[in-house]
Amino acid sequence: MAFLLLAFLFLVIGAGGIRPCNLAFGADQFNPATESGRRGISSFFNWYYFTFTFAVTISVTLIVYVESNVSWTIGLAIPTSLMILSCALFFLGSRLFVKVKPEGSPLTSLAQVVIAATRKRMLKLPDHPALCLFNCMPSNSMNSKLPYTDQFRFLDKAAIITADDQINSNGSAAEPWKLCSIHQAEEVKCVVREEGGALDDQEQRITKLSDNLTLSV
After folding, report:
1. Taking the complete model, does pTM exceed 0.85, yes or no?
2. Which among 78, 101, 158, 160 counts the fewest CB atoms within 10 Å?
């Protein structure tokens, strides 16, 4: 039992380390500033989800059949061997990969937007926020600029430029805890929307479960 629990622990650590990073690492191999890079990113995501769905289909059909009718040992050895092969290919090609250096903690950027927006909560947004708010993107950034959205407009106040705000010669904010870009605000909006969608899905599951229990009673 201890060996099984240890295996589950390693499984959780491995899945938690891979799944949040593989999509981002794959997208980093393409330059979104070029047309070919944008096509490459689109193609990458299409192939990723296709192969992921195909792998899940094989695992719940062929692998389960082998484990049930042939041998558990063989059934577990097949995905283990494929994982070892994929790791070997990954490390063999590591010199060819584009490795983008981290630009700081994303949590820091989220906190900066919230704090800056709170400090400027009494200010009024301009009539055309997408054109009038602070909208600086680092020249060495490979991130695509997010389009402006009208949701959660309170966060847009973090990008209001006041007389006290100072801007560096490269266009960035001198005090990032007082002035943030529209792109940073849109990143926070994406997080809020994702969390809201997850809560809605959870609420729908709970409601459906409650209805099923009511019908069964």
Report:
1. no
2. 101
